[in-house]
Specification:
Layout (H helix, E strand, L loop, with lengths): L10 E2 L2 E2 L3 E2 L2 E9 L4 E7 L2 E2 L5 E2 L7 E7 L1 H9 L11 E4 L5 E6 L5 H7 L13
Antiparallel strand pairs: 1-2, 3-4, 4-5, 5-8, 6-7, 8-10, 9-10
Length: about 130
């Protein structure tokens, strides 16, 4: 597996960012928020009984938030059957017992959508000159 370390930040505040969280291999940074960062990730290679590594051929990429707050996980658990709420794929602990949360990537970022609409996100148009 090729290391993606060159495209990942090495730290978020005082927490080291690993190359792997649970069964997810972090690929790149999608965005940063007040509490944590969101990474694009893929399922990690699966090890089978006869010691062969079989890489997951799925192109499924997911969003992994790290670190995340326990209240975020609790809210998603309570709303898991509600229409329009993102599905939780995995929850676990990373370095320093910080929670991570994996969920599907539902579409482009809001920033990308606003840019494609030539919108500045504050109610006005952007001049791209």
């Amino acid at each position: 597996v090729t290391s993606a370390r060159s495209t990942l930040p090495t730290r978020i505040g005082n927490v080291e960012v690993p190359e792997r969280l649970g069964s997810w291999r972090l690929i790149s940074l999608l965005g940063r928020g007040y509490v944590g960062s969101v990474f694009k990730a893929k399922p990690y290679a699966v090890e089978v009984e006869d010691s062969e590594d079989i890489s997951d051929e799925s192109d499924e990429e997911v969003a992994v938030k790290f670190p995340c707050l326990a209240c975020e996980v609790d809210a998603l658990k309570r709303l898991r059957n509600a229409e329009g709420v993102c599905k939780m794929l995995d929850v676990g602990y990373g370095p320093r017992n910080k929670l991570f949360l994996a969920m599907p990537i539902l579409g482009p970022s809001l920033k990308a959508i606003l840019k494609s609409c030539n919108h500045d996100g504050r109610g006005g148009r952007v001049s791209w000159q």
